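Our collaborator T.R. sent over the components below with a one-line note: 'Predict the complex.' Nothing else. No constraints on interfaces, no templates requested, no preferences about which chain binds where. So this is a plain run: every listed entity goes in together, and whatever single assembly comes back becomes the starting point for the next discussion.
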Amino acid sequence: MAKDKKTGYEPMTSIEAISAGLGTAGYISTTQISTAVFLAHGLRKPILIEGPAGVGKTDLAASLAKWMSLPLIRLQCYEGLDEGKALYEWKYGKQLLYTQILKEKLSELLGDAKTLAASLDKLSGFEDLFFSPQFLEARPLLNAMQQSKGSVLLIDEIDKSDEAFEAFLLEVLSDYQVSVPEIGTIRADVPPLVILTSNNVRELGDALKRRCLHLHIGFPDHAREQRIVRARVEGISDTLLNQLVRFVQSVREADIKKRPSIAETVDWARTLLLLHSSTLDEAFVRDTLNVLLKHESDIAAIAPAIPKMVREATGPDARGRLASGYPDMD
Amino acid sequence: MEKQISNFIRALRSADVRVSTGEALDAARTLAMIGYDDRSLMKDSLGCVLAKSESEKSIHDRLFDLYFSSAPASASSSSNESESRTNSDEAPADAAERLSALTAEGNEQALATAVERAAEAAGLNDIRFSTQVAYFAQSMLRAMGGEALQARLLEALQGRTPDADTEAQRLIDVRRALTRATRERAERGFEIFGAAETERFRDDVAATKRLSAIEASDMARMKQLVAKVAKKLAVKHSRRRKRTQRGMLDVRRTMRANAGFDGVPFNVVWRQKKKDRPKILVICDVSGSVAAYVRFLLLLLFSMKEAIPDLSAFAFSYRLKCVDDILETHEFDAAIKKILREIGLGSTSYGQAFSDFKMDHENKIDRRTTIIILGDGRSNYGDPRLDLFRDFAGRAKRIIWLNPEGRALWGTGDSVIPRYQPFCAQMSHVATLKDLERAVDEVLTAYD
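Returned assembly:
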């Protein structure tokens, strides 16, 4: 494992170390998540993360990069994304500019050549000049391969890209190399840690899935959500934290179109903090519910149940939950 | 342990989790990394490597618990191999003693090991059906040396040794304990390797059963099956929405692609045609004889929303009504009940239904619309309004007619099916879920 020395990967010696490391970057991990990262590192395979929007899929990549002090290179997928935008492009403008500037030099060089064939002969030594790495515009994938210390490559929302692009990714993901016809194959010295995320807009191909480790991140349980909100929202009181997480958890159980995710819980916690509410009360909840729920119909569905849910979230039972929640909150 | 893993992977495969050879190798590398000590770590890790979707993960977790609940016993089996080996030349008396020692209290570990070895010897991994449990339990008992025990028992019963009665009683207890252990193991083996196979077999039976004969008890299974079929079709047809059309130059993209060559078109880009998104209108006859089929057709189509973004359903018996609202606002079963209750009354009239459709929904038909009609075409001798039907057929991409009645009955009595037939791209008899699948597949293939 001598190679690991220069990769800056050394901290990944155990699953606990990963959980702790992610913790320092502000990411509250679970055993499953840390295990997946550990294996991804050990087996040098990408991780495919699936799960509802806003549960921290993208954030995992960002926190990993932050913790390991590696550059985070992000490729956002969309319909119509092609090689030119994902891999590399020639800097056409620069090539043109240089040709213009070097024109005089060229005529000097070619001055004594009388025939076309002779000029070509003379030029042949320089033909690679304009198709050299200098004129290569590296897009995210190539960029990630070129990082000498390794990197975290985040391929976000892969399910939004076309099938052709998915197939194109296979070479990159299995061999960590890309080929540029004019230059040759560029191989990553240190394979990047690749994280793909998917919201399941469409079913991904088997070939891609087979090359990845699969990780599903779902909604967090009560204790983990509390820890996340505590890590994200400074100065929130224990009482409010506990009540609001309980409330959100019960909203998730309701039959609604879009269940609130962690991102929304955090936003809501910030909102309540901004309004200086120290405990959950009905009026506050009613006024700020639009932070938590993003559909008019969902708000309408939850509204009648608010008094009951608030009562339950602030009830005496909540105290018990808080106490049992503490051992986890190290 | 390697064998354990490859067997576990076999169990996963038989439970419909597709594990490739590459993934199997990954699993081996994973275990080399993390070791075998921490069961929950092993479960998380293997789940990561072997299962590639949420449903696969839940199958994996269930099987893992089942499979590895006995692992420690077999792990240690290699170490004390010599002592538990069944020698073929072992004297019956020794064998019986060895077996009774195994069942003695405090020897659970040794017993489990022996049972595990017997399971291997009997080829328990090949178990497929629950009816085989007894057979495999027997084979395992034999592999453990049960025959010797039996011989000793007979001897004891015939009273040739002193204390024959107590000896016999003891041997019977031993045999009972062994039988129980092997039987339990065989049952677990079935759970791991055979249960999925049995499920598949029952699924096959259900899929080829007449839809009108599906019993209430099978409804849950049918629902799962329909969901599976829907997923399969959706995956198949939601892919590849573009097609290269040679012969038409895409000037803009050609210029862009050749900018690097100073605009000299070395690489030519042809114009691509986006394929039509499927648009389907389903018109269902909800009179008694067809109702059972309506339910499954709608269930199938509406669970494929992702592949068919543009889908509308209409139901009629006498008057025709759009039922999208009901299907969207109610839970599926309740919606079907409501549709049948509200619309399923009155005598069937295809003519009336088509004229209602013309009046209210005609504008929904365009050249990319497929109209699926589900009905038996028995119109109580009313005017079939062929003029309207011809008009629909002319405007839509195609009309597919699905008829739950067998071909032999078409055109008998008040059936006007043969008169509609010339206008339909296809008219087929649907009786089973497989037929429905084929029909819907056919409809969607026309868009590919």
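Summary for T.R.: Chain B touches chain A at residues 18, 20, 22-23, 26, 29-30, 33-34, 40-41, 44-45, 47-49, 51-54, 57, 231, 234-235, 238-240, 242, 259-260, 306 (CB under 8 Å).
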